[in-house]
Structures are given as C-alpha cells and as structure tokens.
C-alpha cells in the first residue's frame, strides 16, 4: 500500500499540528505516578463496601470518595488514550492503554457497592438525609439511583444476574466474531478492473462508486455471504432480544423499551412520536429517491444506488486555516462567548490535525473534567473535513461549557444530548454556506450533503428503531425470531420507506443481519431525534438570535444536572411533541425543492 508509506512517522509531524498532552500530565513520569495513586485509592475504596450508611455525612463522604476516584481515573485514561491513538504502533503507549483499561474495570468493580448501599437506606431516612446541606449537590445524583428502586432486585439476585452477564452476551459475541473474523467475502472488480477484497467497510466505499456495475456486484456478493449465515445471525440477534426482554421482565418493566428509556427518563411517547412523524413524511423520502433516479439517469434505481454522490466531487477545497476561518463565520449565530471558546480550541493545540503512520482513523472529541477538550482529526483539504471540524468543535465546546459550569458529579452529558450540540453546528455551517455561496455547483453539493445526512440519520435510523421495537415486541409475544420472520418484516418495512421508485431487491430484506447497532439496546432512535432537535435549534438560532442564543448556551452548560428532556425543553425543543420533527421536515423539503430545481 503506497499511500501508507507516504504518511509521516509520528515523530515527523510538526509539533504545532499535534495535541499538547502536557496539559493532562507533564510527562510519562507524572502519568505513572497518577496511575499508581488511582490503584492505591481503588484498593482503599474497596474497604468502604459492606459498611452500613447511617448518617447524611457518611453518605456524602462515600459519594464524594467514589466520584473523586472516577475523576482521577478519567484523567489517567485520557492521557493513555491520547498517547495510544496518536500512534497505535507505539508499544510503550499501547501498554499504557491496556493498564488504563484494566484500571477502569477495577474501579468499577470496587465502587459497585455504592448504588445498592444507597438503595438500602429506607425512603424516609433518605428524605431526612437529603435535607442536610452537604447532600444538596447530590440531590439529582441520588434521585437517578432511587428512581430505580422498584426495578432493582435484592443483592443476591442482582449478583446472580451480574455473574451471568457474560453468558447473556453470547448473542452479541457470536455476531461480532462471525462478522469480524469468520465471514469470508469474495474479491470483486473495481471500476479500473482491479480485484478488491470485499469486507463490510470496503462495501461502504464500493457503494459510493460512480459505476453501477461495481455497486451491483458488491451488493450481490455481500448479501450472498450474509445469506449463507442468515439462520446463525437470526439466532444471535434473537439471543440479544431475549436478553433485553428477560432483564426488563425480571426488573419489573413493562417492556425492554421502557427499561432502556428509563435510564434517561425518556417517556415512550418520544419514540412513538418519532416513528409516527417519520411515517407521515415518507413522501419526502420518496421524492428524494425519485430525484436520485432522474439525476443518475438509471432505468431502474436499486438499494445499492442510494449512496453514490449525486453531484460528483466537491467543487470547493479548504485548507485547515480556511476551514477554521469559515467555521468561525458559520458559528456566529452562537454569539461572542461561544466564539471565544472556539478560538481557544483552534489556537491552543487542542487538535491533533494530520494523519501519520499508525494514527487512529476517523475523528472524535474527547478529554475529561480536568483536561482540555481534545479533538482528533485526520485532516484532508475538503468540505467534508470542514463539516467534521465544526462537528467535533461542537462536542468540544459543549464539554467546555459543561465542565466549567457544573460540579464534577454533573460534568458530563448523555449520548441523547451529545449529538445535538455537534449536529447543530453542522446545520449552522449548511445555513452559512447556503447564504454565502451562489455558485450552483457548490449549492448543489451542499444541499445534497445535507439531504444525504438527513436520509441516513432521520429516515434510516428511524427505520432501524421501528424494526428493533417490532422484534422485541414479537419475542415478548412468543413469536419465534427466525430469519424468514425478520426478513419478511424488514423487507416490507424497507419497501414502505423507500417507495415504488426503488426496485425491491430480495437481498435487502436481510439487512437486519449485518447492523451492529441492533445489539445496542434501543440506541439508534437517538440519532434521529438528535438530528431533528439540532435542526430546530439551528433554525431558532438563525432566525431568533438573542433569546435562542441564551437558551442554547444554557443547554450546553447544563451537563447532566437534569434529565435530558428537561434540558431540551428549556432550550426550546419539546421532544414529546411532533413540532420539532415537523420543523426539521420543512427544512428538508425546502432544500429538496431547491436541489430539484438546480439539477
Ligand atoms: Zn459526534
């Protein structure tokens, strides 16, 4: 692979393009000292287990001790993972990462006593304790635990379940081993006639090919292999669903969905509203598909024709300096204070910019309460990377506000809220580009980028959410989750989502067999709700600047100090109602209309 050899070694990357890890620990010596300290504190905290909590101050002390340990652990973990991600071929730092991983397991097992200990205090006594000043700060933290009171079994029963968790995970383990190690995919021909070894990730790249024959071959070859294992994959998925249903039942939840959503106090109406509204707006997806068919000039549009770019290569390039400048312009609706945070992130070596040999691929924003919010990029001079930059900056500024406003106990935020901050920034960039670019090629590219993102996030993830809920309900009603049963439903659902302009290839009915997110217990719906909420928020920011700005910053500052729906409500989006979704569909329709005219 010639390209890999052209990449610089880590040591050759100019220092100003690397992240400054001395803001976590000055050097490896300091890291190793801190690691030892966390190990010692972990051993000490284990001694608290089994002691009966009999006063408010003892409760406050134990919570504080546990949180303090996590706070130290996170810093150690961040240093190890930054160092390991910057060069995964560096054995010294791979060793740090392995030690940090082991430490996470030790800390979580040593501190597992706290939750049962709190639940062991009877409600009345706990109410009295909560009047005490030293527990004021922990009110919401304790409420999150005591809300589970009716759903936690006695210690012996919980221990039996916990001890069997490896066995319960057999379904997802089989899926992972089968799809990552055992499945053998054939070689297929790319557009230049070269043989390419097919895999799940190569499949994604081949579906973006401009040659219909390559896409068709990749699709047929991939599903031919999955088809051979459809019964095994149905069994592994059924095992996962049965686990979720069983856990929910023994913990006295009405359903697996209720159990999963209860973590963040999300009422099921949020999920149902999403599915209803998306189904009510499927005509927009059908319209988009029709446009695709027309622009690609295909006699028939297949499921494998949905990912190839409609408008060719991006007609505009950005160097990193230009991208930073454009990002700052685009994020202006967020106000001066927000832009100062962006400036800080851009100018203080919080970003690891370029690709080097062994560097972890992709992009992320990370860090912990006591470190800067770091960003990992693998920068290329194009528009997609500008979007990545504003996305990760959205996470980092969210982290900055949360950590600088909230005490450690609420200094993080759940996934349900996380992607809203990053996607709002992407939406603001889209708004900005559409306001400032008049070249029809650039406009078409930006509109298509947005529409494809919406299709993949709102429509596709809701389709997944609908399927996931269906199979859990079917299993709860005693229906066997065979490959035929799941394929029948999935195929019909897919036909309904994409409409009559897409040929209903039988292979797509098997798509359920290869989606890892179906092993993540009611996770996917949050992508769709998050995207739509971000759409509503960015519209508010652009059109209704002053008030929307204050409310938005309040959301970024709230961390996990309240439940996510309360935080979103205060930001101006009621996620139990359909309005925010309808607002997002209105934007989709307006942009689809413009692209229809342009093309
Ligand atoms: Zn993200």
What do you see in this structure?
This protein is mainly alpha-helical and 599 residues long. It folds into 2 domains: 10-168, Oligopeptidase f, N-terminal domain (Butyryl-CoA Dehydrogenase, subunit A, domain 3), CATH 1.20.140.70; 179-183 and 229-315 and 407-599, Neurolysin, domain 3. Helices cover 64% and strands 2% of the residues. It contains 26 helices and 5 strands. It has a 3-stranded mixed beta sheet, with helices on one face. A two-stranded antiparallel sheet has the order 1-2. A hairpin with a 5-residue loop joins β1 (187-189) and β2 (195-197). The site of zinc ion has 4 residues, from α19 and α20. Zinc ion binds next to α19 and α20. This is Oligopeptidase F. It is an enzyme of class 3 (hydrolase). Belongs to the peptidase M3B family.
Roughly what fraction of the amino acids lie in strands?
under 5%
CATH-assigned homologous superfamily of the largest domain: Oligoendopeptidase f, C-terminal domain
Work out the count of structural domains: 2
**Secondary structure tally, helices:** 26
Question: Which strand order spans the largest sheet, edge to edge or round the barrel?
Answer: 3-5-4
**Corresponding CATH architecture of the largest domain:** Orthogonal Bundle
Strand elements, count: 5
> Could you say which overall geometry the principal axes of the C-alpha atoms support?
globular
């Amino acid at each position: 692979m010639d390209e890999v050899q052209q990449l610089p070694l880590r040591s050759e990357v100019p220092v100003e393009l690397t992240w400054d890890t001395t803001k976590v620990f000055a050097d490896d010596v300091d890291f190793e000292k801190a690691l030892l300290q966390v190990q010692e504190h972990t051993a000490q905290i284990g001694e608290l287990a089994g002691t009966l909590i009999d006063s408010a101050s003892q409760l406050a002390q134990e919570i504080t001790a546990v949180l303090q340990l996590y706070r130290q652990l996170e810093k150690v973990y961040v240093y190890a993972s930054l160092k390991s991600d910057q060069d995964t071929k560096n054995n010294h730092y791979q060793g740090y990462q392995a030690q940090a991983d082991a430490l996470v397991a030790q800390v979580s097992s040593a501190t597992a006593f706290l939750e049962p200990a709190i639940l062991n205090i009877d409600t009345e006594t706990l109410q009295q304790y909560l009047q005490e000043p030293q527990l004021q700060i922990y009110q919401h933290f304790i409420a999150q635990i005591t809300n589970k009171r009716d759903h936690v079994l006695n210690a012996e029963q919980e221990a039996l379940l916990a001890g069997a968790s490896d066995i319960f995970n057999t379904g997802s383990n089989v899926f992972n081993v089968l799809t990552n190690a055992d499945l053998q995919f054939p070689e297929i021909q790319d557009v230049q006639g070269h043989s390419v070894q097919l895999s799940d990730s190569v499949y994604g790249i081949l579906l973006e090919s401009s040659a219909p024959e390559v896409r068709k071959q990749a699709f047929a070859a991939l599903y031919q292999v999955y088809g051979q294992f459809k019964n095994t994959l149905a069994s592994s998925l059924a095992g996962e669903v049965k686990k979720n249903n069983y856990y929910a039942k023994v913990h006295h939840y009405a359903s697996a969905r209720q159990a999963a959503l209860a973590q963040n106090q999300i009422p099921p109406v949020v999920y149902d509203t999403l599915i209803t509204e998306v189904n009510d707006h499927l005509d927009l997806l059908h319209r988009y598909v029709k446009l695709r068919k027309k622009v690609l000039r295909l006699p028939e549009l297949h499921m494998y024709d949905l990912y190839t770019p409609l408008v060719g290569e991006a007609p505009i390039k950005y160097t990193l300096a230009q991208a930073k400048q454009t990002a700052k312009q685009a994020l202006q609706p967020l106000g001066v204070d927000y832009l100062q945070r962006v400036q800080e992130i851009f100018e203080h070596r919080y970003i690891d910019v370029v690709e080097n040999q062994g560097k972890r691929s992709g992009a992320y924003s990370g860090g912990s309460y006591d470190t800067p919010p770091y960003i990992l990029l693998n920068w290329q001079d194009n528009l997609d990377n500008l979007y990545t930059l504003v996305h990760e900056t959205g996470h980092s500024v969210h982290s900055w506000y949360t950590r600088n406003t909230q005490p450690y106990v609420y200094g993080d935020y759940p996934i349900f809220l996380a992607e809203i901050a990053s996607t709002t920034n992407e939406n603001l960039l889209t708004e900005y580009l559409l306001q400032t670019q008049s070249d029809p090629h650039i406009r078409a590219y930006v509109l298509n980028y947005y529409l494809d993102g919406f299709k993949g996030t709102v429509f596709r993830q809701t389709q997944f959410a609908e399927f996931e809920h269906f199979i859990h309900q079917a299993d709860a009603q005693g229906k066997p989750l065979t490959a035929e049963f799941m394929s029948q439903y999935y195929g019909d659902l897919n036909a309904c989502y994409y409409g009559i302009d897409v040929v209903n290839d039988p292979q797509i009915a098997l798509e359920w067999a290869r989606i890892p997110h179906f092993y993540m217990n009611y996770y996917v719906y949050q992508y769709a709700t998050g995207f739509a909420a971000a759409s509503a928020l960015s519209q508010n920011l652009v059109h209704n600047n002053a008030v929307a700005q204050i409310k938005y910053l309040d959301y970024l500052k709230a961390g996990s100090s309240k439940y996510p729906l309360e935080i979103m409500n205060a930001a101006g989006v009621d996620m139990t109602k359909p309005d925010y979704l309808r607002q997002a569909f209105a934007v989709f329709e307006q942009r689809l209309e413009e692209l229809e005219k342009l093309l």
